[in-house]
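Students often ask why we bother predicting the structure of a whole assembly rather than each chain alone. The short answer is interfaces. A chain on its own may look different once its partners are present, and contacts between molecules only exist in the joint model. In this exercise we take two input lines together and write out one structure for the complete complex. Read the inputs first and try to guess which parts will touch.
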Amino acid sequence: VEIDRLLLELFLIFAAAKLAGELFERIRQPPVIGELIVGVILGPHALGAIGESEVHEIFQQLGAIVLLFMVGLDTRLGELRAVGRRALGVGTLGIAMPFLTGLAFVTAIEGSLDEGMFVGAAMVATSVGITARVLADLGVIHEVESRIVLGAAVVDDVWGLLVLAAVSGGTRGDLTALDFAALAIGGIGFVLIVATLGRKVVSAAIPAVTDAKTQASPVAFALAVCLGLSALAGQIGLAAIIGAFLAGMAFSESRPEWDLENQLESVYVLLVPYFFVITGSAVDPSIFTSGSTVLLVAAITGLALVGKLIGCGLGMWGTSKRSVAIVGVGMVPRGEVGIIVASVGLSRDIIDNELYGAIVAMSILTTLIAPPILKALYAGRPTQPRAPGARRGRDVEGIGG
Amino acid sequence: VEIDRLLLELFLIFAAAKLAGELFERIRQPPVIGELIVGVILGPHALGAIGESEVHEIFQQLGAIVLLFMVGLDTRLGELRAVGRRALGVGTLGIAMPFLTGLAFVTAIEGSLDEGMFVGAAMVATSVGITARVLADLGVIHEVESRIVLGAAVVDDVWGLLVLAAVSGGTRGDLTALDFAALAIGGIGFVLIVATLGRKVVSAAIPAVTDAKTQASPVAFALAVCLGLSALAGQIGLAAIIGAFLAGMAFSESRPEWDLENQLESVYVLLVPYFFVITGSAVDPSIFTSGSTVLLVAAITGLALVGKLIGCGLGMWGTSKRSVAIVGVGMVPRGEVGIIVASVGLSRDIIDNELYGAIVAMSILTTLIAPPILKALYAGRPTQPRAPGARRGRDVEGIGG
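Now the answer. The structure tokens for the assembled complex follow.
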């Protein structure tokens, strides 16, 4: 039966991810790279051991949601606020530059502004999951650059929502100024309200949750809030992981009582690998057999890389070269967001198959390139592998705008 | 997008399950009943807040898999062996009686032996998840009757596989004696090999797992074995949960080092509710609007109930009336297995829509009936609600054949 087949795939993905992760730990590389490569190898375009279905998509999502929830759990609002202006600049310029370079390049070579707008839009949104995992694995999630990346990713996602809405509605000609204003207010309002009120609501609920008779009620409450805010973010048009990150932050100050980071470790261990393996499985290696496609991929990937580095680098003006590089590279991975935008463009016949393939390749390549560079930027420093089980001190980080 | 919709459903199911569970805890009823009723209310045949898709099926499966793994984790081979002969008798007679009564009744009223065989086959297989949860919630999972039910469920499942194969192949006329022998050897061999060798393999792996650099490697190893044996059982044609139960048993003696019951609590809290809510969502209340269908449902449900009670009761010959009743009622829930058999019959046009609906209703009704009766059979005794967090003593149970 189909369900038996899916269960077998879920097992294969999990086991292969753990083995690859272990191998990469032993050769002192981020395990996330091993998991991504396993995905490419097992994926539908290579061995075909992993298929494509809603089940794969939802496990990919849940993996990213749990990951960002755990990152949020480790992030206090104050820490993010301290880097707020910096994050706003990095997120905003990091959206503007890739959009403009993508738009200009594709409009020039294809002669179509609609096509240029879609490719530009597909090039903007950073997928922060990969970077968050690498920073966590390296044990540097509390450093100031990590905070800026996390904050900028939230800013980036709100901008990404608005750019997609503008391009999508603009090319179809049915987006009114009112629709756009509603989206903008919804996206910005969601982020601001949840970020500021979330922890107060959680605090207010502590007595009721403590009194509840349900098994492990704090864990159940945290999971419900995590799923609820993720789903709500998705309904608004934001990435679900932004809801998950904000949910985690809302619980970041409840930890002494509930010890959620330890309590949720098995959910993390179970679900997070699905995000990386299934993300990797979207790569189609055969795209690199045509010379002109390779050139197109190289051009778009290069522009995506350079656009993000320059945009985010400008946002980091005045800091050290190393900080500029870490934040710039940290914002490079596009992950699944670019692929989603491109598939909307493809389904509306605005972009063709080759351009679609190039965007998918760009999304994956930017995702694969970032982890080793980040790792190299931290090389020489004593690394401290992530272990949510062992709580780390909060007072070791040095946060500043 | 579809994925956003599915994420919203997963949140709704989880939140509603926890609220209903809490409510039922407070009115001193098994929370599982609350979760099943929530499923009926939110299901596609009522409010429609829960749809039907592979995502729902896989979450339903994973919930049952995690549940049975945890039950297995609490079960030592010796405990099961001590009730082995009893469980064999209960499982075997508990298959034979419902099959014969179902076969005789439907052949008599419909005049078709093929139809009778399919309905008989749909009436045999106990779905032990519901009973396991009720027994665990009542804190009686180590009592001798609970052990017999768990052992009998394994026997029952192997027989169920063979009955389904015989009926399915027999009515299609393409099952050779060799195929049947292969199935029988596969099913029985899987159970015997995993039950006896599983814990030795786990013990042998302990040093490697302890040395591994992967985060929370014992948890990752346990989850991999659980998913792997569940998937393998599914590939052989057994219920995936039988693989999960045997996987749990294989780890039952590794616990002192790894504390898996506590470590996996959040996975349990997250996934198990999906099994009950999605199982409940299959109920179509509208079936009870036609008088003749109500009669058919009543007759088939009655035969399913009485057949299981008499068959399992005979297997318990010589024990106390209370033990006979607990084991008999514990084996009554049919859950999803009967529905799967019926849907095969429907897709081959061997049974009609009315009969299919009646089997679905029987599966659900037997599932809904058992928990309150079980609870009543334990009434008066001091209850001890399940808390995997707090490990219970192993030496309190009195096991005997």
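Check your guess against this: Residues 177-211 of chain B form the longest helix (35 residues).
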